[in-house]
Amino acid sequence: MARAIWSGVLTFGLVTLPVQLFTATEDHTVHFRQVQRGTSDRIRYKRVNERTGEEVGYDDIVKGYDLGGGDYVLVDPDELDEIAPGRSQVVEITGFVDLDQVEPVYFDRTYYLAPGGEEYAKIYDVLRRALDQENKTGVATFVMRGKQHLVALRAQEEVLVLHTLHWADEVRDPHEELPALPEGGEATSRELDSARRLIDALSVHWNPEDYHDTYEERVRELVDAKAEGREVVSGEAPPEPSNVISLMDLLQRSVEQSRAGREQPSTGRGHPERRPAGGKGERSKRRGAAGARGRLEQLSKDELYEQATRRDIAGRSKMNKDQLIEALGRAAS
């Protein structure tokens, strides 16, 4: 069982609820160590005094605010703890807002919030159910690891979730950061209607288990291939940008393609199901094979790779899109 990374109390109105904070996510990224090229020698970093060249221990390091000209204001970590707001470790909800009012750009990290003991389960459940029924999120601040955080508290099924948020001055203005933004009214009504039909045709029910990190799988396969001395083939280049002149035609064809794919029975993962060719004779087999290939051609390379992974097709990490289609077609026959 995970250990709490923070403990304190949550307050709303005159109600005080002891709580514990737990990390809600974990990192599955493939991590590499730094080594010198041509050797297996590890590269390590040291904390070195730039004037003396001597290594410095953690206990002898303080923070310094640069005033310029080589002058610093030195601050000890204990001094930062003494001035930290909310040292009583309180998550104080100052208000409730509609859930959809908080723009996604403000969200940072996600944590689970648990009651501080079984005796507080009722208070916890009352708050969770009320937030869920009102479709509200609680806005609060608290201090963790020497930093004050703006947070949003919201309800999920059976658990309260706490999101740390970026402060307003940490979110960049897109009009100042981006080189250009499109002017309003550039799209025609026919183009917008086609785009809306395409969105409708591609709409699915959100199921996070339908998605996984195919890039991480390819990194692991790359490592395995190099360890075994096998050749590594690069993936295909990204597609060319669409020509704005043919936008209407591309949208309409995309809608037709998506609808044709949706007419096929679903495998439960959002992809068309491949059925064995029915009927008698070679002509029926050819029609079935052509139909299966057509359905595969409608999928992206990542979707093809996902199917190849489920079928454990050897060498899939080195295949381009056409090779994946051929391999999946052979596996289905």
Q: Short summary of the structure?
A:
This protein is α+β, with helices and mostly antiparallel strands and 333 residues long.
Overview features:
single chain, 333 residues, Ku70, Chain: A, Domain 2, seven-stranded mixed β-barrel, two-stranded antiparallel ribbon, 32% helix, extended
Query: How far apart are the first and last residues' alpha carbons, in Å?
Result: 46 Å
Structural class: alpha+beta
Strand content: 15-25%
Largest sheet: 7 strands, mixed, barrel
What is the string of helix and strand elements? Answer: EEEEHEEHEEEHHHHHHH
Oligomer category: single chain
Radius of gyration from CA coordinates: 28 Å
Structural features, described:
The protein is an alpha+beta fold and 333 residues long. Among the domains are: 6-25 and 82-170, Ku70, Chain: A, Domain 2 (Beta Barrel), CATH 2.40.290; 211-332, no CATH class. Helix content is 32%, strand content 21%. It has 9 helices and 9 strands. It has a 7-stranded mixed β-barrel with strand order 1-2-6-9-8-7-5. The longest helix has 17 residues, at 281-297. It is extended, with a radius of gyration of 28 Å. It starts with 5 loop residues before the first strand and ends with a helix. The relative contact order is 0.09.
